[in-house]
Specification:
The complex is a heterodimer. Helices cover about 20% and strands about 25% of the residues of chain A. In chain A, a hairpin with a 2-residue loop joins strand 3 and strand 4. Chain B has one domain: Roll (Nuclear Transport Factor 2, Chain: A). In chain B, about 25% of the residues lie in helices and about 45% in strands. The two termini of chain B are about 25 Å apart. Strand 12 of chain A pairs parallel with strand 8 of chain B.
Chain lengths: ~425, ~160
C-alpha cells in the first residue's frame, strides 16, 4: 500500500478489537471516496442480481456497485456479464432503462454501440465523411470497451468484482454463507417484486445495524409488543472465518400461538417496552410455514460489503446497498418466492412482506435509527461508538442475541481493506 | 353519474386525506368496509406486473392492526402529513364506482422543515353501504417508489 491517504490520518481506532469506531468514519466525504476504491472495488464480491431476473439472452438489469452504475446481462451464449454502465467515449450512462432485453447497449449521445460482453462493436462515422473527420486511423476499438467486472455465480446468485485479487467466491463467502445461499436458493426462485428505500445516513450505519442483533428486541417492538418473539428466545450470530459477514438467526415454534408470551418481560426493566399483552386481530400473516429442513425462522445473512439475504419467516429477499454519498444510500430489495409455490404460499409471502422493507412492521425503525445517529455525529469526529455487548477482545460466533460482536468483525475487516491499523499508534 | 355523486366522492377523498393529516388514523380505517383491500404499490412493480406491495392489508382487521402497531410498537420519524388530493376521476363500476385521483404528500418535522414525501395516484373502488360511501378497495400507486427514510403512516 502506498502512503496513507490524508483522510485516514484524521481518525484513530484506539481499540484493536474494533470496539471503538470514530464518528468521522461515517461523515467524511474523503473516507467515502476511498471506500469506493478500497472496499467496493477492492478484493470483495459484490451482489449484483439474481439469474432468474435475466433468464433469456439479451436480458439485462442496471444496478450499482457502491455508487458505480453497472449493467448485468446475459449474452447470446447464455453467459452472465457485468460492466460499468458508462460510455468509453465521453462517460455517459449507456443503458438508460433499469431492466429490459437488448441486442447490445447503445449510448444515445454519439451512438457508440457495445455488445453483451461490453465490447465496443461500432462507432458511427468512424471513418468520417468522404475521408474527412472521424476517428484517427490507428484508433483501436478493442481498447475502448465498457469496463468489465469479474462475475461469479452461486446457485443463481450473481456476484461481481472489480479486483483481480479477489479470492474465489466460495472461499470469500466461507462455509456458513455458502450453505445459507444454497439453503435459500435450493430451488428455482421467482421474483415477486422490488422495494426501494433511501436513507439519509451513512451506509455503514446500516451494515452495523445488520450486525447488531441486540437492537432487534429493543428497537423493533412489533414482535415483542404482540408477543411473537423476544430477545431471550433462541438465536445467535454466525460469522465467516474473517468475521466480515454475519448471519443473525432465530429459531422458534412454527406458530405464534405456540409461544408463551407471559414469560420474560425480565430484562426490559422500566423501559416501558416488552409488554407482550396486546393481540393482533389478524395474526395469520405471522405464521411460519416451515420450508427448510432446519428450524430457523429468521435469518439475516449480511455479506460484506453490499448485501443481505433476508428470511423473515416465509418472506425472502435480497437487499442490495447502493451508496450515494457519505450521507445517503439506497436499499434495493428483490423479494422472491419459489417457482413451485402454490397460490396459498404465494399469497402468504406477499402478505408477510408487511413485516419487512421501508414500511415493515419489524423493520421500519432501522431507517429512523440510522438517521438519528447520522444527524447527531455531525461534530466530534474523534469521539467513538461503543461496541461492547457480547464482550471485548476475540471475536467468535454468538449463541445469544444480546450481542453486537459481529459489528466488530465488520470493522476489523474494513480497517484491513482501508489500510487502517486498529489499535495502532496515533497517526 | 350525477353532479351530486361527484360531490359525494370528492368529499370522501377529502375526508380520507384530512383524517390522515389530523392523525385520526382509527377514524380513517372506518372509511373502509370490513372486507376491504388497502395496498401501497410502486409504479416500478406495477409496470413489471409484479405483485409485491409496500403495504398490504386485505381486511379491515389488518388495517386496524397496522394502526395499532403504529400506536403501540413502531418507532418512526416524528412528522405531520399534508395530503394534497387532486380532482377525482369517476367511472361507474359493478356495484359502485371506480374513483381515482393524483396526490402529493408532504411531510413536516417538529421543527417545521417540509419535504415532498410521495406523489402518485389513488385507484379506489367505492361502494354505498346504508347510504354512506365507503372504500372497498384503495390501491395507492406511488411514483415515489424509492421511499424516503421509511413509510409508517398510510398514504
Amino acid at each position: 500500500m502506498t502512503a496513507m491517504p490524508e483522510a485516514l490520518r484524521r481518525y484513530h481506532f484506539p481499540a484493536a478489537d474494533g470496539s471503538r469506531i470514530p464518528y468521522g468514519m461515517y461523515r467524511d466525504a474523503e473516507i467515502y471516496a476511498l471506500e469506493q476504491e478500497r472496499i467496493f472495488r477492492g478484493p470483495v464480491w459484490n451482489y449484483l442480481a439474481l439469474e432468474c431476473e435475466i433468464p433469456a439472452p439479451g436480458d439485462f438489469r442496471t444496478v450499482a456497485v457502491g455508487d458505480t452504475p453497472v449493467i448485468v446481462n446475459r449474452a447470446r451464449d447464455g453467459s452472465i456479464h457485468a460492466m460499468v454502465n458508462r460510455c468509453a467515449h465521453r462517460g455517459a450512462i449507456v443503458q438508460r432503462q433499469i431492466y429490459g432485453n437488448a441486442r447490445g447497449h447503445i449510448c444515445c449521445y454519439h451512438q457508440w454501440s457495445y455488445d453483451l460482453t461490453g465490447r465496443l462493436v461500432s462507432v458511427p462515422f468512424r471513418r468520417g465523411v468522404k475521408g474527412v473527420g472521424g476517428l484517427p486511423a490507428d484508433f483501436d476499438m478493442g481498447c475502448h470497451g465498457l469496463q468489465t467486472l469479474r462475475v461469479s455465480v452461486l446457485n443463481g446468485v450473481i456476484f461481481g468484482s472489480f479486483s483481480e485479487d479477489t479470492e474465489p467466491l466460495e472461499t470469500f463467502l466461507d462455509v456458513p454463507f455458502v450453505a445459507q445461499l444454497k439453503r435459500l436458493f435450493h430451488k428455482q426462485p421467482v421474483v415477486l417484486g422490488y422495494q426501494r428505500q433511501r436513507i439519509f445516513g451513512n451506509w455503514k450505519l446500516y451494515t452495523d445495524n445488520l450486525r447488531d442483533p441486540n437492537h432487534g428486541g429493543l428497537l423493533h417492538m412489533f414482535q415483542i409488543t404482540f408477543g411473537i418473539a423476544r430477545l431471550s428466545g433462541r438465536g445467535g450470530a454466525t460469522m465467516d472465518r474473517e468475521h466480515k459477514h454475519n448471519m443473525s438467526w432465530a429459531a422458534q415454534g412454527s406458530r405464534p400461538e405456540d409461544e408463551a408470551p407471559a414469560e420474560s418481560k425480565e430484562g426490559y426493566g422500566d423501559t416501558g417496552r416488552g409488554d407482550m399483552d396486546i393481540r393482533l386481530r389478524d395474526p395469520s400473516m405471522l405464521r411460519y410455514h416451515k420450508e427448510y429442513p432446519d428450524d430457523l425462522s429468521l435469518t439475516i445473512a449480511s455479506i460484506f460489503p453490499n448485501c443481505a439475504f433476508q428470511q423473515i419467516g416465509n418472506t425472502l429477499a435480497v437487499r442490495q446497498f447502493r451508496t450515494i454519498s457519505a450521507d445517503e444510500f439506497e436499499i434495493v430489495s428483490t423479494y422472491f418466492g419459489y417457482a413451485d409455490d402454490d397460490e396459498v404460499m404465494r399469497r402468504h409471502r406477499l402478505r408477510k412482506a408487511n413485516l419487512a422493507g421501508p414500511a415493515g412492521l419489524v423493520s421500519m425503525e432501522d431507517g429512523e435509527a440510522v438517521e438519528l445517529v447520522h444527524r447527531a455525529i455531525v461534530r466530534d469526529a474523534q469521539e467513538h461508538s461503543v461496541v461492547e455487548f457480547g464482550g471485548r477482545g476475540a471475536i467468535a460466533d454468538q449463541e445469544n442475541l444480546v450481542t453486537d460482536v459481529p459489528m466488530r468483525g465488520f470493522w476489523i475487516h474494513y480497517c484491513k481493506l482501508m489500510g487502517i491499523e486498529a489499535g495502532g499508534p496515533l497517526p | 353519474m350525477t353532479a351530486d355523486m361527484f360531490i359525494r366522492l370528492t368529499m370522501l377523498f377529502e375526508e380520507y386525506g384530512r383524517l390522515l393529516d389530523e392523525d385520526r388514523l382509527e377514524e380513517w380505517t372506518d372509511l373502509f368496509i370490513e372486507d376491504c383491500l388497502y395496498e401501497i404499490v410502486s409504479r416500478e412493480n406495477v409496470r413489471q406486473n409484479l405483485p409485491l406491495s409496500l403495504m398490504l392489508c386485505d381486511s379491515k382487521d389488518m388495517l386496524r392492526d397496522r394502526i395499532s402497531a403504529l400506536r403501540e410498537a413502531n418507532i418512526f420519524n416524528i412528522h405531520v402529513d399534508c395530503h394534497i388530493i387532486g380532482p377525482v376521476h369517476v367511472t361507474p363500476a359493478d356495484a359502485g364506482w371506480d374513483a381515482s385521483s393524483a396526490y402529493a404528500l408532504y411531510q413536516s418535522t417538529q421543527e417545521g422543515q417540509t419535504r415532498l414525501f410521495s406523489v402518485g395516484r389513488y385507484h379506489a373502488r367505492v361502494v354505498e353501504l346504508d347510504g354512506v360511501l365507503r372504500f372497498a378497495r384503495q390501491r395507492v400507486i406511488v411514483d415515489t417508489g424509492a421511499i424516503l427514510t421509511l413509510l409508517a403512516t398510510p398514504i
